[in-house]
């Protein structure tokens, strides 16, 4: 059976494609606080602002492309079983060629009913406007896990992490829970590598590559047969 590589990715890998991130702006995303655009309360208070914010993010996503890190992770599927667990809401992993992607925090190119979270629509890069409703008449909202909401895919991700033969962590500071807790689901003898140019959170047994996503993933892939 092929080794199973589980990859946990965060904002750092998307930033190298040119996407703005909260992480790089001190909790702001192009001057917007997370509390203004990424909470259920924000949507209730000012739905027009929140919809406009995510419409802009969706428009930006349509203008960027997967980078070499996304492509290298996809190419690993030729030799290994690979599952991507991403905190990102973009579709760059899929566009880069990865076939197994778990989105912990939702997907920017999908919308869902405000009344029934299970009613989800693919919207590609189209905007969501006030008055756009689901088949039952409820306003549509971005299919995004906002701060303060449950993370419905976390148990699926935890089950996947328990089957890892290698864990690769790319572009995330491991500060956001419950995603950060996934590292503790991996068996203790599984090799763990963290790729981050900054100061990553402590993973006691991890190998750390202090480089950006593209350069770091290329280095890790070239060394993969050595560990």
Mean residue pLDDT: 91
CATH architecture label:
3-Layer(aba) Sandwich
User: Element order, helices and strands?
Assistant: EHEEHHHHEHEEEEHEEEH
Quick one: how many beta strands? 11
- Tell me the radius of gyration: 18 Å
Amino-to-carboxy terminus distance: 17 Å
Total number of distinct structural domains: 1
- Shape summary: elongated
The share of residues in extended strands comes to: 15-25%
Strand order of the largest sheet: 5-4-1-9-10-11
Write a short abstract of this structure.
This protein has eight helices and eleven strands. By secondary structure, the protein is of the alpha/beta class.
How does this model look, in words?
This protein has 227 residues and is of the alpha/beta class. The chain has a single domain (4-226), classed as Rossmann fold (3-Layer(aba) Sandwich), CATH 3.40.50.1220. The protein contains eight helices and eleven strands. It has helices at 11-15, 34-37, 40-45, 47-63, 68-75, 92-96, 154-161, 213-223, and strands at residues 4-9, 28-29, 32-33, 81-86, 101-103, 106-113, 120-122, 140-144, 166-170, 192-195, 207-209. Strands 5-4-1-9-10-11 form a six-stranded parallel beta sheet, with helices on both faces. Strands 7-6-8 form a three-stranded antiparallel beta sheet. Strand 4 (81-86), helix 6 (92-96) and strand 5 (101-103) form a beta-alpha-beta unit. Helix 5 packs parallel to helix 8. The longest helix has 17 residues, at 47-63. The radius of gyration is 18 Å and the shape is elongated. The two termini are 17 Å apart. The relative contact order is 0.18.
